[in-house]
Design brief:
Helix content: 25-40%
CATH topology of the largest domain: Aminopeptidase
Number of helices: 14
Structural class: alpha/beta
Distance between the termini: 36 Å
Radius of gyration: 24 Å
Strand content: 15-25%
CATH superfamily of the largest domain: Zn peptidases
CATH architecture of the largest domain: 3-Layer(aba) Sandwich
Mean pLDDT: 96
Largest sheet: 9 strands, mixed
Bound molecules: ligand BES, manganese (II) ion, zinc ion
Shape: elongated
Length: 490
């Protein structure tokens, strides 16, 4: 989709559809030459999400005038802006239009760059569909151009810059969604490795992919053990973007269980199809690396993606088994369904070799996190208050909310084992005992996002279709953009 940002008078924009936003109880701009007045005499109040389609004939140059409500001016946010442009773009597509124009409103606390960024994210993500496996729908008509119309006082260059960044952030999210939506029969660990090689080729990143033999040789026992009974071989993917001189890198880690049956501790079959999404953390990390590359961020970033299926079988690991992990710690298996923390623990201990300034992992780790926060926030834990705050802010900026949860010493007490150093499952507080487990393997500033409730869903919103959301790809990129900026400022 072509995206442009230009100054223009709304009444002069020659387009099949011009969308204009109205705040609650405010009148339409004079520049519409009265084209909106009919709708405004009663039926349209400007509440958030309200829409009306008008056919203004000769009053303005556009064929259609779409009014869209923003609610109260003082409470307008980038998140509302994303939802607004998503609604407009989807409407234009459903009318089979090839282009649409949108008069960009700038929230009071924002600027043209950030507003354009959010507007483009919303439009591009709102149009997302996963049609790969739908016969005949591959080439459905898509919107070809989306124009941001700026008023006289706006900074056009800043808006163009924001639009470009927004497109890259959306592309990162779309890559993450595509990977996560892919069924597990095709979306295998090797498929993720292939995607990582593509990113490496496009942006000149370093890449290491370990196969089953390499994983064993490296001593990644958790990953090797979970993947032992799977015919689709596990992979350990390390992708390195080195554009930050000799500064310590940020390491991002994503759980990528391409299908989680639970293993011998098998899950109930109802809804098990959703466990193809259990690689959403890895998908988000690869999506984030796509944006790190396309934005050419001037920092060092390493992505680690441990990937495997979790299946029962004659060779499967079993409850009661004890593993000596990559770090040297021993773990008693209570449930083979608590597999995510095993592969993440190895990735976290592998990360030590980079002497990282920070490590952030993301994982569809626990059903307990969904019980706690539902689908409205990722669980956020860690061992460093500053990093936790940084991740929370990045999530807020991205429109991907994350909420802090505690890692009290008592949760660490709960995972003590009679047989081994620690055990891989303990209740109650399943999200926090999982966090406490990971904490045992992180000896650097570390934060953990439990995305079990946010990575995919049945409902979605204006810019998130059913299925994979791509969360937290943009959170990770925003965090890294922030680091790049403070490095430039230092
Ligand atoms: N992949 C699941 C977590 C999950 C559950 C993600 C629901 C999305 C929706 C994870 O591997 C798992 O099975 N966790 C167990 C842990 C338990 C055995 C300690 C869980 O949450 O029940
Ligand atoms: Mn599991
Ligand atoms: Zn899992």
């Amino acid at each position: 989709m072509l995206i442009r940002a230009n100054k223009a008078a709304p009444n002069e924009v020659n387009t099949p559809l011009l969308a204009v936003c109205l705040y609650r109880d405010e009148s339409a701009p004079d520049s519409l030459n009265g084209a909106a007045d009919d709708a405004l005499c009663g039926d349209f109040s400007g509440k958030m999400g309200e829409t009306a389609m008008l056919y203004p004939k000769d009053a303005i140059a556009a064929e259609r005038l779409m009014l869209i409500g923003l609610g109260d001016r003082a409470s307008f946010t980038h998140e509302k802006l994303r939802r607004t442009t998503a609604t407009v773009a989807k409407k234009a597509r459903s009318l089979k239009l090839s282009e649409a124009a949108f008069a960009l409103p700038i929230p009071e606390t924002s600027d043209a760059e950030e507003a354009a960024l959010a507007a483009v994210e919303g439009a591009a993500l709102g149009l997302y569909r996963f049609t790969r496996h739908k016969t005949g729908e591959e080439d459905d008509r898509e919107l070809e151009a989306f124009d941001l119309i700026l008023d006289e006082s706006a900074d056009e260059e800043a808006a163009s810059r924001g639009a470009e960044t927004g497109a890259k952030l959306a592309a990162a999210t779309i890559l993450a969604r595509d990977l996560a939506n892919e069924p597990s029969n095709t979306g295998t660990p090797e498929y993720l490795a292939k995607t990582a090689r593509g990113i490496s080729d496009r942006y000149g990143m370093g890449i290491t992919v370990l196969d089953r033999a390499g994983i064993k040789e490296e001593g990644l026992t958790g990953l090797a053990t979970v993947g032992r009974s799977a015919l689709n071989e596990p992979r350990f993917i390390a992708l390195e973007h080195r554009k930050g001189g000799d500064a310590a890198p940020v390491v991002i880690v994503g759980k990528a269980v391409t299908f989680d049956s639970g293993g011998i501790s098998i899950k109930p079959s109802g809804g098990m199809e959703d466990m193809k999404f259990d690689m959403s953390g890895g998908a988000a990390v690869l999506g984030a690396m796509e944006a790190v590359g396309s934005l050419d961020l001037p920092i060092n970033v390493v992505a680690l993606v441990p990937s495997t299926e979790n299946l029962p079988g004659g060779d499967a690991f079993k409850p009661g088994d004890v593993l000596r992990m990559h770090s040297g710690k021993t773990v008693e298996i209570i449930s083979t369904d608590a597999e995510g923390r095993l592969i993440l623990a190895d990735a976290l201990s592998y990360a030590r070799r980079y002497e990282p300034s920070a490590v952030v992992d993301c994982a569809t780790l626990t059903g307990a996190c969904v019980v706690a926060l539902g689908n409205h926030a990722s669980g956020l834990m860690g061992n460093n208050e500053d990093l936790i705050a940084e991740v929370q802010t990045a999530g807020e900026t991205a429109g991907e909310r994350a909420w802090p949860l505690p890692l009290f010493d008592e949760y660490t007490e709960q995972i003590k084992s009679d047989t081994a150093d620690i055990k891989n499952s303990a209740r109650p507080a399943g999200a926090l005992t999982a966090g406490a487990f990971l904490k045992e393997f992180a000896d650097y500033p570390w934060a953990h996002l439990d995305i079990a409730g946010t990575a995919y869903g049945k409902k979605g919103n204006a810019y998130t279709a059913k299925g994979a959301t791509g969360t937290p790809a943009r959170t990770l990129v925003r965090l890294l953009m922030g680091r790049a900026e403070s490095r430039a400022g230092a």
